Amino acid sequence: MIYLDSAATSLLKPPEVLSAMKNAINTMASPGRGSYSAARLAADTVYECRELVCRLFHYDKPENVVFSMNATHALNIAIRSVVKKGDRVCVSGYEHNSVTRTLNAVGAEMLIAKSELFDREGTIKAFEKLIPKADAVVCNHVSNVFGFIMPVKEISELCRKYSVPFILDASQSAGIIDIDAVEMYASYIAMPGHKGLMGPQGTGILLCKSNPEPLMFGGTGSESINQLMPDSLPDMLEAGTHNVVGIAGLGEGIKYVLQNGAENIGKHEQRLCRFMASRLKTLEGVEVFYSEENQAGVLSIRHGSINSETLCEKLGENEVAARCGLHCSPFAHKSAGTLQTGTIRFSFSPFLDENDILNAFNIFKNLIICEKLINM
Fold first, then answer.
1. Which of 132, 246, 276, 299 is the most buried (most CB within 10 A)?
2. What are phi and psi of 234, to 5 degrees?
3. What is the residue extent of each domain of the chain?
4. Secondary structure E strands in 296-355
5. What's residue 376's pLDDT?
6. Using CA atoms, how far apart are residues 55 and 281, in angstroms rounded to an integer?
7. DSSP letter at 108?
8. What own/partner pairs with CB < 8 Å and gap ≥ 24 does 48-55 have?
9. CB 241 within 8 A of CB 43
């Protein structure tokens, strides 16, 4: 199979991830629940992963690295810690439902910083106009639909200027773009463990630079007599038993990113994206959403007369993994004018090369020819 759906999850992973998970399930108990060797080993593994996160994101507070189930879980903690009912929250026109549905559930009013696809300057101007009116700002770093790299440093500086809390959704950028958590003006940075960080599903991270509110309540292995959640991180936000097996795998995934460099991985994926886009543009009837300057390794396309779902299903039958539809991001599709049709999304991986992309392109090209013949 040619796997082109890494924006959903990194199915292709370093072998060390699986080895670490196998070792953890056989040797590790629960951290903070005992002084015997299996519990201590679990505690050491979890803490080592916090330190690895700090190394990757240039952070110096491992206790402020909180593990979550996924990025959605992390974003819920961040948003519910910052945003209250009736607050005005400025978001980009490319946000995921994990942000917009949560804001809707909280009862916030969304101020949408509208801009054209891949227009960094237009995006900055839109945020500059709205941030002074906002109680908070939430923005993704990279669009999960179009790979649009948002000008988050400039947006964060505008938030600093107006003392507005900023939440960064790094779901598509963690592991492929260098992020300096100290330099970035952000109350929270949320991310999954299972995408660019190469960890398993069921893992996520929230970097806390402000005082959060617990989303879940329960045992932490500390302050057991207290019927309130501990007031210190990470225990305040990590109720219940840790996903030690997942965190062990995540640590190895982060080691891979550290060894190879997030920027290098990102550039490799961008090269594959450019390679695929250049060939898809040669196909009659195919609209390719691509920018030479402001795009990560995520590429959306659509055909003028052939349904995206049909083509995506045929790709799957030919062992090419891609995703079609709205990708849980109707805001992004509305901004780009693709809400009625959706798109086919190809997203790339450090474990693919140009031969893989060329093979996938040729399969796609032949599918279009066959569909046209069928419909003649």
1. 299
2. -90, -10
3. 2-9+262-374, 15-260
4. 298-303, 320-321, 323-325, 343-347
5. 45
6. 40
7. P
8. 48/251, 49/247, 49/248, 49/250, 49/251, 49/254, 50/234, 52/251, 52/254, 52/255, 52/258, 53/205, 53/207, 53/254, 55/258
9. no
Task: Evaluate whether 146 touches 94 at the Cβ level (below 8 Å).
Answer: yes
Q: How far apart are CA 162 and CA 43, in angstroms?
A: 40
> Under 8 Å CB-to-CB from 176, ≥6 apart: which residues?
142, 196, 262, 265, 266, 269, 296, 297
Coil vs helix vs strand at 206: strand
CATH number among 3.30.450.20, 3.90.550.10, 3.40.630.30, 3.40.640.10, domain 15-260: 3.40.640.10
Mean pLDDT (the chain) is: 96
Return the number of other C-beta atoms located less than 10 Å from residue 256's C-beta: 19
- Record the pTM: 0.96
Over residues 93-136, the pLDDT tens digits come to 999 999 999 999 999 999 999 999 999 999 999 999 999 999 99
Cis check for the bond before 31: say yes or no (omega within 30 of 0).
no
DSSP string of 24-68, one letter each residue: HHHH---TTS-SSHHHHHHHHHHHHHHHHHHHHTT-S-GGGEEEE
Q: What is the DSSP string of 182-195?
A: TTS--SEEEEESSS
Residue entry with tokens 């790299």: 149
298-303 and 188-192 strand pairing: unpaired
Task: Give the phi and the psi of residue 207 in degrees, each rounded to 5.
Answer: -90, 120
Task: Specify whether domain 2-9+262-374 bears CATH 1.20.1300.10.
Answer: no
203: left (phi over 0), alpha (psi -120 to 50) or beta: beta
Residue from 181, 202, 217 nearest 247 by CA = 202
